[in-house]
Design goal:
253 residues
């Protein structure tokens, strides 16, 4: 039996990149996948991909930084499917690449609003539903290797991703007795549109990044998806409060 059979799992930021790849893995593992994003056309494509691979998926237009939208979605999922068994809080943006003196306050606030406050809002709504269920649930949020170390030129992104880890650990302690687990995945360099934007499609910059990774390669998004799927499953039933690097050994140096 697939490890997520009969599980209903929400994936935010599921339209592209890590979110899309994870949605496909979850569907293959038997989950009903609820995809939330603001990129509607890409979201519809993800649903098709999941369904074509034998999974079940549906898409909802949701801004994770809007509490009412997230709460309405979680309520809908619980009423339509009977439960919310897991959530992959993955929606995020990279923000400006600049030293702090050159980062506009508005840009800082936007990154924090989406990457950190968005995770807080999602957790708040997800946990409210999960504590009502006898079965509890599992929450996985996307932090980053940049949530574990400092990277010059990415103040807002680094701060938001460090915050996701702190939030995850706090939630894990607060709700462990309620059968709710909370963990974070910390991707390194992943083959996604975000990596292309960060490197500005520069072969030189890309080669420099790969050279810093002990495995000497970037990861495929599905490699993050497989990790998230395990953390969302009962296979990891005694794992909570963990910030797991999935980075080819980068932050171990």
């Amino acid at each position: 039996m697939a490890m997520l059979t009969n599980k209903v799992i929400l994936v935010t930021g599921g339209s592209t990149g890590i979110g899309r790849a994870t949605a496909k893995v979850l569907g293959t593992e038997g989950a009903t996948v609820i995809i939330a994003d603001v990129q509607d056309q890409e979201g519809a494509t993800t649903v098709e991909m999941v369904n074509d691979s034998g999974g079940k998926a549906e898409y909802h237009h949701v801004d994770v930084s809007d509490y009412e939208q997230v709460r309405a979605l979680v309520t809908h999922v619980a009423e339509s499917h009977g439960s919310l068994d897991g959530a992959f809080n993955n929606a995020g943006i990279e923000g400006p690449t600049a030293k702090i003196l050159d980062v506009p306050v508005e840009a800082w606030e936007r990154v924090i609003r989406v990457n950190l406050t968005g995770v807080f809002i999602c957790m708040k709504c997800e946990i409210e539903q999960m504590v009502k269920q006898d079965s509890g649930g599992s929450i996985v949020s996307t932090s980053s290797a940049a949530g574990l170390i400092g990277i010059p030129g990415a103040a807002s992104y680094n701060a938001s991703k460090h915050g996701v880890i702190g939030l995850t650990k706090t939630i894990a302690l607060e709700y462990a007795s309620k059968k709710v687990r909370a963990n974070a995945v910390c991707p390194g360099f992943i083959e996604t549109p975000m990596l292309d934007r960060v490197t500005d499609a520069s072969v030189k910059i890309r080669d420099q990044l790969i050279g810093a990774v002990p495995m000497r390669r970037v990861a495929q998004p599905s490699e993050i998806g497989e990790t998230a799927a395990w953390l969302l499953s009962d296979k990891s039933s005694y794992v909570t409060g963990v910030a797991m690097p999935v980075d080819g050994g980068w932050v171990a140096q």
